[in-house]
Structure formats: structure tokens, C-alpha cells
Design a protein that fits this description.
Layout lengths: L1 H21 L6 H7 L4 H7 L3 H19 L10 H17 L1 H5 L1 H7 L1 H27 L7 H26 L7 H13 L10 H11 L3 H5 L2
Length: 221
């Protein structure tokens, strides 16, 4: 049993590496099996098809994001929480970047995954709304309920489309860097600029400087 679990984990990890480097559409189960020096039959023993591997990877991604998007219990939010959220989301985007690049194709190919993703996105929007409200309650942001809703939606749109933006402007999914994804997180932070409380501006400015990547660096091939 332990050997089976280990093989299953190797398949998942290899698939993630290949999907990230080459794009999910360009990788077949035969490619994955060859990369691992195993027979296709051995791979199919653990996963019936590529969609099953993708579903496993999505579950890992979903679990990771769900663990991040939580309001801390028993205390007020701080600017340090903002750093945590942004850096944790950046790490998740980088680790599962193929999913952001090929999202529409993945959901069209698997109706069950599409239904799962809809619930996931609704949950993320709900949690993000609560987080922004927490920053308002802590006096870090000054926003109305309507502004929180708009900021939540805009942040979600940037987060889920940033990798595709980079790929369409640069062309090669395997050529992306974590630094280029960092600029996407900066874009989310920049949306909040007009709502920052005066007393939080100095700390958030430090975050701006940490996350900023020049536009010409994003677009150069």
C-alpha cells in the first residue's frame, strides 16, 4: 500500500511539473508515464485518465487556497495579515500556474470539475469579502459594502486571469517567472490604494515596493 501511495504521489507531482512547463493541453498520460519511466498501464492503475490527475491537482490547489482565505480568530486584522495573504496567494498561483493558464479549457473538458470550481469560486469570493471587511473593521481600509464587493470581484478577476495575460503577451508558458506572477499580486494590492487609511499607508507602501515589477520586464520575451 505504501508503495502504491508513493507512486500515486510521483504521478501527481510529475504531472504538475509537466503541465506547468508545457501547458496541460500539450501533455498526455503517455508523456507523464514516459517522464516517470513507467508503463502507461501502471499510470492507469492509479488514475483512469488525465482528467482524474487534474482533479487531484485541483483538490490540492483548492485545499491550499481555502487554508489561506481565513479571517484570524480572536483578534483584529493587521497589515502583516495583508502580507501573509498576498504572499500565500502568490505561492499558490506559482505552484499551480497551469491551472490559471488553461482554466477555461479544463472546465469545458470536465463538467464535474466545472461544477466543483463554481462552488470553490463562490466560497473564495465570500471569504475574500470577509477578509476585506476585517481590514475595514481594523481601520486599515475605509470602504463601503458596495466598494468591498467591487474590490473583491476585481481582485478575483486579476488573480484568475493574470497567468493567461502573461502567456498571451509573452507566448511561452514555460518561460514565466515567479517575479512576473508577483506583479499580478501587486495589481491586486494597487486596487486598494484609494481606500487606505492614512495610518496604514507607510506599511503598505513597503509592500508596494516589494511586489512591484516594471511593465517592460513583464513584456520582454
Amino acid at each position: 500500500m505504501a508503495a502504491q501511495i508513493k507512486t500515486r504521489e510521483r504521478i501527481v507531482q510529475a504531472s504538475l511539473e509537466l503541465f506547468n512547463a508545457q501547458g496541460e493541453r500539450n501533455v498526455t498520460t503517455n508523456h507523464i508515464a514516459a517522464h516517470l519511466s513507467m508503463s502507461p498501464g501502471n499510470l492507469y492503475y492509479h488514475f483512469r485518465n488525465k482528467q482524474a490527475i487534474i482533479a487531484e491537482l485541483f483538490t490540492q490547489y483548492e485545499t491550499r487556497v481555502d487554508a489561506v482565505l481565513r479571517v484570524p480568530e480572536g483578534r483584529a486584522m493587521t497589515v502583516e495579515d495583508k502580507t501573509f495573504y498576498l504572499e500565500a496567494l502568490l505561492a499558490a498561483m506559482w505552484q499551480f500556474r497551469f491551472m490559471h493558464r488553461d482554466l477555461e479549457h479544463l472546465l469545458e473538458a470536465d463538467p464535474e470539475l466545472a461544477a466543483h470550481y463554481r462552488h470553490f469560486s463562490q466560497r473564495c469570493l465570500s471569504h475574500a469579502t470577509a477578509i476585506y471587511q476585517g481590514f475595514v473593521d481594523a481601520g486599515i481600509l475605509r470602504m463601503t459594502a458596495a466598494q468591498i464587493e467591487a474590490l473583491t470581484l476585481n481582485s478575483w478577476i486579476i488573480m484568475t486571469s493574470w497567468v493567461r495575460f502573461l502567456c498571451t503577451t509573452r507566448g511561452d508558458p514555460g518561460d514565466l517567472s515567479e517575479e512576473q506572477l508577483r506583479r499580478g499580486i501587486y495589481q491586486i494590492l494597487a486596487l486598494e490604494g484609494g481606500y487606505l487609511a492614512l495610518e496604514a499607508q507607510a506599511a503598505v507602501e513597503a509592500l508596494y515596493r516589494k511586489l512591484y515589477v516594471p511593465l517592460e520586464q513583464l513584456l520582454q520575451g
